Amino acid sequence: MKHYEVEILDAKTKDKLCFLDKVEPNATIGEIKSMFHKSHPQWYPARQSIRLDPKGKSLKDEDVLQHLPVGTTATFYFRDLGAQISWVTVFLTEYAGPLLIYLLFYFRVPFIYAPKYDFTASKHWVVHLACMCHSFHYVKRLLETLFVHRFSHGTMPLRNIFKNCTYYWGFAAWMAYYINHPLYTPPTYGEQQVRAALIIFLFCQIGNFSIHITLRNLRPPGSKTRKIPYPTKNPFTWIFLLVSCPNYTYELGSWLGFTLMTQCLPVAFFTLVGFIQMTVWAKGKHRSYLKEFRDYPPLRSPILPFIL
Amino acid sequence: MSAPAMGTSRPAVADGALGRKRGPGALAAAYLVLYNVVMTAGWLVIAVGLVRAYLARGSYHGLYYSIEKPLKFFQTGALLEVRGIVPSSVVLTGFQVMSRVFLTWAVTHSVREVQSEDSVLLFVVAWTITEIIRYSFYTFSLLNHLPYLIKWARYTFFIVLYPMGVTGELLTIYAALPYVQKTGLYSITLPNKYNFSFDYHTFLILSMASYIPLFPQLYFHMFRQRKKVLGHVEDYSKVE
Fold it and tell me: Transmembrane region positions (chain B) (predicted)?
């Protein structure tokens, strides 16, 4: 069996960083990354980007050496992606924050509102309901992160955690401040409004969860395969007929419900900003589906049926 | 949320009026030249207005009123530059123009009491000289006939004008604070049916604080641009 020689150069300076000889032809990029890590312990595999061309796309961990367009002496270029953090860690931190922060405002811990309100409870029942809904939402997200989602990338750049946490924690504090404020004004249409909002919220929470389960079942454990999602027996998944990313559709619906329930402008802002970001993601996902699958159902829109 | 990475740093002075590098076609090019000529002329009008009013009154007090309308018109007109002519610098262009428009309308126009402050004159003069140089720089660049003097002026005058403008802006916002607090201008208090509040006074203080991280970054960026653009002057002297 012919062995390969692999040299790894820095993509920017073209310095020779590493030379590996007697590499198996069926070695994967992932295995090469591990070998490279041994000679450069500060660059763990998750922060290595290995390419055939200094300015080209990163090769995948699953790519096999002998199937790449290289000679028996393969030259790869390395770029440092920077410190990485696992998606699971980021999600858990992002979501635990709002859960706890909201409760601080709900229980009116000192130094937020005037001292005479410390540890008092709101006299409006919708405020208690809102706390339950908000908390339920983030507990659901935490549990999904731990038990449901299957991530295709293990890590993301470290700086993302600061950006993401600022967003989630900041908005949670801003919303919670007003909802739990002693001068909070309950919704204009009273019980009717809150009841309708609760139904919308719960419907969309179940919907969102159904989609997450469906997407999880598309992908066997430990794999990174991508398949077209289709409606299942669960009626909440029938929205797949019209939409590529119904998880985002349902998420929007949940927050619209919460906005209606609390009638709070900061909640509306949060919903709007989230909607914009999810639309960007949905369009990207929709485009990748179209590129990857010839037979992708033409009736589907990225996030809003027929509209967006 | 994983947002796409922000663009790399750009020159502090807006490049929106310069147009796409690849040449957008004759009509678009003509439009750009026209835009930059009009803006140069506009700021010259403001400059002339300031000088004439000064000579007429004999003092520099209250000169704002003599150029209030053209200032509002041409500074607001700069919003057209944020159309995304140069997509990559939309963020920085947008930020710069928005902060100028904010100073013009949300501070100086809205709080009558500060209009007679000398600090207003300070930033108006700084903006006027800067914009005359900047728009003529773009005009000449588009016509492929850029005199070195203009290029030199654009990358040198900022050294004095930038701190001068910032000082004027900060002093003006500071002067506006007591009036904003007293009248509750642009502020919303609880309770209200949208469960929202906004304190413009606090917002202005936070705006002032934001100058601390932002100004040094932009200022030193301009110095780096200066070195890059004017740097070859040193090479000539070395040859001799």
Answer: 28-55, 155-180, 200-220
